[in-house]
Each structure stands twice: as structure tokens, then as C-alpha cells.
Amino acid sequence: MRSPIDRMIDEACGLTPEKIEEKIEQLRANRKKLFLTLRCPSCGKEQQSRRTPDDPPNAALMLMACPDHFPAGETVPVEYRDENGTVL
Hints:
Blueprint (H helix, E strand, L loop, with lengths): L3 H9 L4 H18 E5 L6 E5 L10 E4 L13 E4 L7
Parallel strand pairs: 1-3
Antiparallel strand pairs: 1-2, 3-4
């Protein structure tokens, strides 16, 4: 919950709780456009990574073995999935 002074500032700036929620949703949507979740299928470790031009535009998840689970010098298989888990 926002403090009384924060609510006063919000009100003075014309922000309503609805507008604040809308802005939060916009920020979440933008984050999905900028970042991709990387997950190791062997151990489940996850991290966020900035998208690259090589990533499919509707990909939300990239399954790729972490350094602990693939032999050095070998090619690592990569699988992209969308928000629903569908393989791209």
C-alpha cells in the first residue's frame, strides 16, 4: 500500500490507482519484449537475458544446457518456446 504522501503526490499528478496498474502492466509487457528467460532442462536453473536479433520475436523461453550440463567444446542444442510453452 502506498504511503499517504505518495498518494498525495499521485493525486496531484493526476494518477489514479487504475492508471498506476495500467502503467505497471505496460512495464511488464515491455520487459517481456526486452528479456528472454534461459532455462537449463537438466537442472532447472534460470536467468534472464536480453534478447538478441537471432531470437524469435515471440519466444519467451530458451531451453539450453547450462555450463554444468554440457561437455566443453560441443555444440549446445537450443529450443525456443512461446509464453504457452509451444515449441517454436
